[in-house]
Fold each of these.
Amino acid sequence: MAATATATLFYPGRPAELGGTSDFPVESLRLKLIRDGLEDYEYLRLASEVGEAALARRLAEELAPNPYGWRRNPRAPPGRSPQAGRRHRGQAGRRRF
């Protein structure tokens, strides 16, 4: 069975096409989006842990009001995780790890 392009996470990076001296993996846009989603989740989880659960919930609901209602506007900025991240970094000094 042939693999479909929709499931590809890495593409072959060939020196003849992309430079270099040996083949190397090139990440797909799909893999980058998976990474961004995991980072958003982690920022929201960390915000909740440092007492910003209300902020985390509000930001999550803005991103995905329901399981089928994800924001799809390509011009909209990606998740608001930097806001939650800044809040987390401000609280990190007060938290014991």
Amino acid sequence: MRLIDADKLSTKMLDASWYDNADEDVAWELLQDAPTVDLVTAPVKCGECKYFDTDECAMIGYCDGCDCKVDLGFNETGFCSHGERKDGEPHA
């Protein structure tokens, strides 16, 4: 896969000379219908995470001295890189 700048391509298409309008119409339809890529994945908030408030939560640590559970201070609106939605849906 190769990412392109569709806005710059649109500008070049406007400047291009076309054999006939049908070719230009098809090209514009293809450009408008082309799939897009979402490069940014929103993190799962702790309150939406299936691990929140469980022993499997990445934000729960254990003391080296006595092996007691230590809450690292996150709440329902926090997030980490290990979150998975409770409903099984992919990240937004």
